[in-house]
Design a protein that fits this description.
Elements: E1 2-8, H1 12-25, E2 31-37, H2 43-55, E3 59-63, H3 70-80, E4 85-89, E5 93-95, H4 100-108, E6 113-121, E7 127-129, E8 132-134, E9 140-142, E10 162-163, E11 171-175, H5 176-182, H6 194-204, E12 208-219, H7 231-254, E13 275-277, E14 280-282
Parallel strand pairs: 1-2, 1-4, 2-3, 6-12
Antiparallel strand pairs: 4-11, 5-12, 6-7, 6-11, 8-9, 10-12, 13-14
Length: 283
């Protein structure tokens, strides 16, 4: 059984598209959906929840009454889950591949694999997520972001199942037992880097993180929570950067073991790293 965990605040149109696509397209049927309600303000949201549970008998609504903390919300939901596998999912995704759960599960159930991530697209059919590279952009970044959907990527990495340092929790499956052993999400990381941190923790336990291009979804990114565009959000983001660096400083210094040191950590297109010599840049 797979427990699909979806945090939500209002945005019922996004949530309905997400859940309807799961229920109508998925060929894997042994799953439950846990929607974690977090301080919604619109009455229509709660009316929708009631109708949702009448429509689908495998949907449960959980309520998190405290302030938004992505890590704490998901840890809470895991304690209420029944599945042997956990599938963390954003409320702003839409399923493309009918066999998406099978594609992730067949890898995740293998011995030594702790976590599996999917291939996500922006609505314009460019890449939103095809794996995360440690150190890209300073801390961690999505590789080949904004590449066209039909590109194979550097050395075929956009079309290949592969071990990788981290994947996004916008669509991330893991064994419930591994989640427990890893201690769950770090609740000090309220918004940023909590999924990357969990991946790092899982890898430190000797478990593999795997990206599969055969589970495809659309991701309408940042619709629900917005950007880091206020002094308060920027202060919180700065604290989370420091927290991540404190925990994984050695790994950041060593570099991503799945990414060539000859490639750029400034550009996410796998272009050659440039070195400055005598005031000029050279490949």
């Amino acid at each position: 059984m797979i427990s699909i965990i979806i945090p939500n605040k209002d945005h019922i149109d996004d949530l309905d598209l997400c859940i309807t696509s799961i229920e109508e397209k998925s060929t894997w049927k042994n799953y439950e959906i846990l929607v974690v309600e977090n301080n919604s303000e619109q009455k229509d949201t709660f009316v929708y929840y009631e109708g949702l549970q009448r429509r689908y008998n495998n949907v449960r609504i959980l309520t998190w009454k405290k302030e938004f903390n992505y890590s704490a919300i998901n840890n809470f939901a895991v304690r209420e889950s029944r599945g042997e596998y956990l599938l963390f999912l954003n409320n702003d995704v839409e399923i493309i591949t009918p066999s998406w759960m099978e594609e992730m599960l067949q890898i995740c159930q293998q011995k030594g694999v702790g976590m599996v991530g999917a291939k996500l697209y922006y609505p314009d059919d460019t890449i939103q997520h095809a794996g995360v590279v440690l150190g890209l952009g300073g801390i961690a970044g999505h590789i080949m972001c904004k590449a066209n959907r039909d590109e194979i990527g550097y050395m075929g990495r956009l079309v290949s199942v592969q071990e990788i340092s981290a994947v996004t929790a916008a669509c991330m499956m893991m064994k419930a037992s591994v989640f427990c052993d890893a201690g769950g999400f770090d609740e000090e990381l309220r918004v940023a880097f909590n999924d990357i941190d969990l991946c790092m923790q899982v890898r430190s336990m000797g478990e593999k993180i795997v990206f599969t291009p055969y589970a495809e979804l659309y991701h309408y990114e940042s619709k629900s929570r917005g950007l880091e565009d206020t002094p308060e959000k920027q202060l919180r983001f700065g604290k989370e950067v420091k927290c991540f660096k404190r925990k994984w400083e050695r790994d950041l210094l060593k570099g991503d073991p799945y990414y060539s040191p000859n490639l750029s950590l400034k550009e996410g297109d796998c272009s050659l790293r440039k070195e400055e010599r005598n005031g000029e840049y050279h490949a």
